[in-house]
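We close this part of the discussion by returning to an individual protein. The encoding preserves chain order, so positions in sequence and tokens coincide. The sequence in question and its structure tokens are set out directly beneath this paragraph:

===
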Amino acid sequence: AGYTSKLNDAVAGTALEGKSIEEILAGVSSASTAVRNNGGGFYNHNLYWSVMGPGGGGEPTGELAAAINSAFGSFADFKTQFSNSAATRFGSGWAWLVKDAYGNLDIRQTSNAGCPLRDGFTPLLTCDVWEHAYYLKYQNKRGEYLQNILKIINWEKVASRMA
């Protein structure tokens, strides 16, 4: 709610007012720090929570599984690479599974409220690696958090974002 309120205040009366969050973040390089930080915080957290939940886990199927296997070798290799990206993000930030303009998948990481939309990628999945995301349960065991977060990903929702 805080990100939403501050983002709405930052875009009020500007050319960004009324645009979608994707449009705002795709053109954010010229926007204010408040727009970049609060827009990223809003978008990143919404995506994070929307692709996980009870009944998640397992492995992706269909087009998403084929794309993961093509890009990373196997789902197991994807999990290793994704977890490594999240584990090696120094400080606060995010790990991402993204799709480029040609439909190719990649793993990226951003710091703070960074978002791959700014670089022309379509985010499919993200993992919050700010300490607030895991510290109460895992304390300094980021690796354990990362192993468990992949157990609750709803791969059907991730696959729906590929379209």
Summary: The chain has a mean pLDDT of 91. The first strand starts at residue 93 and ends at 99. The helical segments are 2-11, 21-26, 33-50, 62-72, 75-87, 135-138, 142-149, 155-160. The beta strands are 93-99, 105-111, 122-128.
